[in-house]
Amino acid sequence: MQGKSRETFSSGLAVFFATLGSAVGLGNIWKFPYLTGENGGGAFLLVYFLCILLVGIPVMLCEFYAGRKTRKNAFGAYQQIKPGPVWKHIGTMGVGSAYFIMFFYSCVAGWVYYYLFKALKGDFIGVTLETAKAQFGATVVGPYSPIIWQVIVLIVVCAIVAAGVQKGIEKMTKTLMPVLFLLILICDLRAITLPGASEGLQFLFHVDFSKLTAPVILTALGLAFFKLSLGMGTMTTYASYFTHDNNLFRTAAKVATADTLVSLLAGIAIFPTVFSFGMEPGAGPGLLFMTIPLVFSQMPLGNLLLIAFFFLTSIAATTAMLSLVEVPVAYFVEEKGYTRRSAAILTGIIILAFGVLASLSADKSSLLGHITFGGKGFFDWFDYLSSNIMLPLGGLMIAVLIGYSVSKADIEKEFSNGGTLHQEGIITLFFFVIRYVTPALLIIVFLNSIGIIR
Ligand code: PFF
């Protein structure tokens, strides 16, 4: 940053919670369960794990390297690693992807905040499958309430980001992540004791390879990127605030493991309920909003737990959004000379301008739901373009850049914290994977998705 000393997180624990706060979000609780449901359960899960291992963790490590080494925002970091007209655009594209994700993410986060409000009012007491479906339909179609809640979400997120790295992001994530974990466990206990729960668990864990088609594999790959906040400079930006003695390998492994665990726990809370109440596992984006009120409806203190659940989902969504907003904010502050506050306000306004389109097109009967391009409306396009195209493309560029432009000696120096950690074996493995395995897999899945190879 221009001459001024740059803020960092205050400790290793703060690094872990902030990074996990970025990874854990609506992706785990909303997207992971419904994509697993739509794509056949266990087989999808298996491909997803492989994507995390062979693509996700290596790209995360590349981003950690770029951020901590340069201590710059996504644009500045890649420009420093390889000056010239091309590679800095990993950062430009990252800022673009952050916006695209925020357009629809802020809309779904708005639904979650609204559900919390409704739970507080007692709207879900005595809910049945029919009324749960009707309430979700009314929430999504609006047209005013989804936009009002989207605005509220954006005000909360931008205010925290404006407060700074330690006072805003670190303080929020460190307090709230452990509570989130505990509450999902309580939901799980309830879900697996429902009658018929085993059918749901079987759906989640039964592996049927006939379900694996090229689009399913691309979806799993896109989900891995989305889940671990990769391919768009988020982890690069966060790593620029990491402490100098952080063990990057260990942080990546811990974050990927904890994040996957939260996704599985969310799946374990949702699928037994789906089967117990005779719902469709492939119900799409509404799955979470229709199942969770049902899980708690018929138990003592159910409404209290429902409030807690939506409170925690709001937290997960909020902490993930902090990291999304931080990408353009760090860019505007460090590259364009904005103050943190005005950068946060500007970012919020841009997100709202386009995010409204997502809110008004989330369902076929929404105000703009009839406007489609190639079968997808605004909401679906924002989601598809960012998760399935921009993030994997960004990830490919990051892996190629770090794998081929940075010397092994430089990698060794950064990952060993200047020689204080001894990790020669794992560094050699990492170097091999990002040079050959990760790019090859990304290219094959891409070519396949656009129909060039089958
Ligand atoms: N990882 C977040 C989730 O799973 O909800 C979403 C996300 C956050 C994606 C930050 C990308 C990102 F840069």
TrEMBL record:
It is a multi-pass membrane protein. Keywords: Membrane, Symport, Transmembrane, Transmembrane helix, Transport. The lineage of its organism: Bacteria, Bacillati, Bacillota, Negativicutes, Acetonemataceae. Belongs to the sodium:neurotransmitter symporter (SNF) (TC 2.A.22) family. PANTHER family: TRANSPORTER (PTHR42948:SF1). GO terms for molecular function: symporter activity. The chain crosses the membrane at residues 12-30, 42-66, 98-116, 147-165, 177-197, 217-241, 261-279, 304-331, 343-362, 382-406, 427-453. The keyword Transferase does not apply. SUPFAM superfamilies: SNF-like. GO terms for cellular component: membrane. It is found in: Membrane. This is Transporter. It holds the Pfam family SNF. CDD domains: SLC6sbd_Tyt1-Like (cd10336).
